Amino acid sequence: MSGGSSVTVSPRKGEEFPVSGGGNKKRDSLGSAAGHPIVKDVGEIYSRLLDHRPVIQGEIRYFVKEFEEKRDFREVRVLENLKNTVFEASDQTVPKCEQVLRDSLSEALRRLQAGNEMVIRLQQREQEEKQIEKLMAGEKQRIAQWDEFLKDQHSLRAVLDEEHTKAMERLKEQYAIMEKDLTKHTL
Q: How far apart are CA 29 and CA 18, in angstroms?
């Protein structure tokens, strides 16, 4: 609203437009100076009834503020719960777990040592049995070889006895012939 000219407010917020024909003359209702309060009222009615931007912006700000506060409180509660859980775990749960672990490990170690000793004994027995089996197998093999050797010796003995018998017979025959020849020559 500058100087001496009259200005009317438009229905759009913040816009002003000059009324034609300057001065303070009264005009009719179609844009006259006398209609100025009506135009102002129409602008206010328009802004209240049809322009929802300020109301919506206020609601958005309220919603964001409420959401951030509730979210912030929820995060604080979650962090507090986590902090309490961590302190409880480090103060109570971890020492209990360490003690149970020590007890369980000592018991498990004792059982493992007993089991290890049993396994060692079983392995020794198994090795002894394997050695005995090897010895028995070797003995059986030697017995089989000895039996085969004896059979070979019997067959060789039989062959040698037969050859000896034949050789003796030949010698007897030869001596008999020699004796006959001697008796012939001596007589």
A: 15
**Whole-angstrom distance, CA of residue 103 vs CA of residue 97:** 10
Question: What torsion do the CA atoms of 29, 34, 38, 43 make, to the nearest 10 degrees?
Answer: 100
Greatest Cα pair distance in the chain: 210
Whether residue 9 contacts residue 43, with contact meaning beta carbons closer than 8 Å, is answered with: yes
> pLDDT digits over 75-128, tens only?
778 888 888 888 888 888 888 888 888 888 899 999 999 999 999 999 999 999
- What's the CA gap between 109 and 104, in Å, rounded? 8
* Predicted confidence (pLDDT) per residue in 40-69, tens digit: 888 888 777 777 777 788 888 887 777 777
The rounded distance, in Å, linking the Cα atoms of 139 and 131 is 12
Q: Which residue has the tokens 């509730």?
A: 70
Cα-based distances in Å from 184 to 171, 175, 178, 187: 19, 14, 10, 5
Which tokens is 169 given? 């017979």
Residue ranges of alpha helices (H) inside the chain are: 36-49, 53-88, 94-186
